[in-house]
Amino acid sequence: MAFTVAIDGPAAAGKGTISRAVADKFGFAHLDTGLLYRATGRRTLDGTDALDAARSLTPHDLDADDLRTPDVAQAASRVAAIPEVRAALVDFQRAFARRSGGAVLDGRDIGTVICPDAEVKLFVTASDEVRAQRRLDELLGKGHETDFETVLSDLQTRDARDSARATAPLKSAEDAVMLDTTHMSIEEAVAAACAEVARKQ
Ligand code: C5P
């Protein structure tokens, strides 16, 4: 039976970690929908047209090692503002969401546009500073050279662009449960998300 968990929120709020943990605990499949936009954005950096890139994505593109860089994140957010690019990625996401055995999808518009009927909707947030610090730790851990101010300003640029776009902007669904992880440990955030899923199962 299909059971969909939609997890949305701004960049580096903890959606990925929470989604993977929920998927593990309940045996659901997980799709990080940001990867679709990152893979599309990455190909535009080589000069490929954004819509051609979105229409021809393969599973191999989603596995590329270099999707987590700041340049690719900004390119992702630019292509994500193009309505035709978003439209090209809808069917894949909806089919994934309704597969049998349950699915967790995380992104920006899962609860609002992709899966408005999801059984569970969470909107995960944290303060800008906490999100920037988490992303900084992640990037430094991978050997990128950067600093707090650069990461903070990148996140804020991306969130502003994602929130202001006309098509499927970053926003909470009216019926989503808000999860502010500013003062939470990973374990606490995961436990709160799992409790929500367990309540609806
Ligand atoms: O989640 P992640 O930071 O990897 O997403 C990269 C970018 O992809 C976001 O800044 C956003 O512009 C776009 N995105 C989107 N809708 C989604 C997931 C990601 O517009 N469902």
Automatic annotation (TrEMBL):
The lineage of its organism: Bacteria, Pseudomonadati, Pseudomonadota, Alphaproteobacteria, Rhodobacterales. One of its GO terms (molecular function) is kinase activity. Belongs to the cytidylate kinase family. Type 1 subfamily. ATP binds at G9, P10, A11, A12, A13, G14, K15, G16, T17. It holds the Pfam family Cytidylate_kin. Its EC number is 2.7.4.25. InterPro entries: Cytidylate_kin (IPR003136), Cytidylate_kinase_dom (IPR011994), P-loop_NTPase (IPR027417). It is found in: Cytoplasm. Gene3D superfamilies: P-loop containing nucleotide triphosphate hydrolases. It is an enzyme of class 2 (transferase). Residues 5-196 form the Cytidylate kinase domain. SUPFAM superfamilies: P-loop containing nucleoside triphosphate hydrolases (SSF52540). It comes from Roseovarius phycicola. It catalyses: dCMP + ATP = dCDP + ADP; CMP + ATP = CDP + ADP. This is Cytidylate kinase. Keywords: ATP-binding, Cytoplasm, Kinase, Nucleotide-binding, Transferase. The keyword Repeat does not apply.
